[in-house]
Amino acid sequence: MRSINLFLAIILVISVNSAHALNTLSLKVGETQIISLKGVSDVVVGNENLLKVELLPPHDLVIKAISSGYTELLVRYESGSNDKIPIVVNAPLDKKEQLHLQWLKQQYSQLQFDEKAGTTVISGQLPQLELEQFKRAIIDYPDWLIQVSEVPAAIDQMIELQVTILEVKRQSAQHLGIKWQHSISGPTLSDASAQWVTFPITLLSTVNLLVQNGHARILAEPKLIAASGGQADFLVGGEFPIPQVLTQGAQDVEFRDYGISLSMSPHDLGGGQISTEIKAQISTIDPATAIQGIPGMLTRRVSSLITAKSGEAIILSGLLSQEQSLQAESFPLLHQIPILGELFSSREFRDAETELFVVVTPLLQSHQRQTQQSHEHAKSLIKSFRDNATCVGLTDGF
């Protein structure tokens, strides 16, 4: 009889000296618990439709949950005293809910998952962006009790954004792992034309090697700093006037920006992870779409939310098309713009032999200090070796 009651059930043995030590028991339908109580003479179930209880000598109490609900178990002792044990029987989770809960535990291992009184309880803290994603992931389960709050942002955590804008020969692109499109149709350009990809910090060494070998040239290397959750902007270009006719024949002039624009919003996710929202745009003057002598604008933009480790490089490519460089021939003034002017003056770029790269490397300042310390330590070791070796012509390479 005992083996039948325990068949296909989850068994939990609880040993206590008195029923007074027990809190509310929580069971699932089909689950069995064994409670060891000394001096028990009899048990009475409040609702026999929910539980099946059997007293096995010398002091084992076998409780099997049959259906969901709430009841109480009256325990009578040989001493004449009585105790009541509250018992909650929960309906089992459906298959979809079980799978989703398992997925959440894997995705958000820093959270605590419990079950209390038949309700799934999730508690803990998450960074702002992860908290927003988590809320969207649980929207189909309003019965869950959610006690997840936002992690307070570190006030003094600053993030440096190292930006490198360079021109790279297409035949050397394979060194960076980029597959290039042979052509990009224009002048109507969509956001999907631009590409982005992340690489480890060793990519920067590859870029430096390409520059040294003449396969790439650096056009600009700005460094920006923003607080976690803040924003950093980079703009190089100019404005061109557009005359407008107002009411009653009055005239006005509107100025439109053109050039390279970068807007970046980094977020420290903890554990060395940085989430960066990048909005990049390149605008050039387009005489092909001129109306009454007023040129149009040829614009290409990309907006991406990328999560990478501190020190990993994010590459944006495909931001500038061959058509934009050819249109620059009609506006010599564009050749005077920093960065873009150098690019438009490149015959290799006009012949689609090179490509514009924008490399963004977010770096936590604490991580940056460690990197600088390692760099200085390596530099001192090389200098010490050079001085002690008394070699002629040996340089430190820094």
UniProtKB/TrEMBL annotation:
GO biological process, one term: protein secretion
Keywords in alphabetical order: Signal
The keyword Cytoplasm is annotated on this UniProt entry: no
Domain Type II/III secretion system secretin-like: 210-363
Residues spanning the signal sequence: 1-21
Residue span(s) of domain Pilus formation protein N-terminal: 23-89
GO CC annotation, single: type II protein secretion system complex
PANTHER family: PROBABLE GENERAL SECRETION PATHWAY PROTEIN D, TYPE IV PILIATION SYSTEM PROTEIN DR_0774-RELATED
Family statement: Belongs to the bacterial secretin family.
Protein name as it appears in the record: Uncharacterized protein
Organism: Pseudidiomarina marina
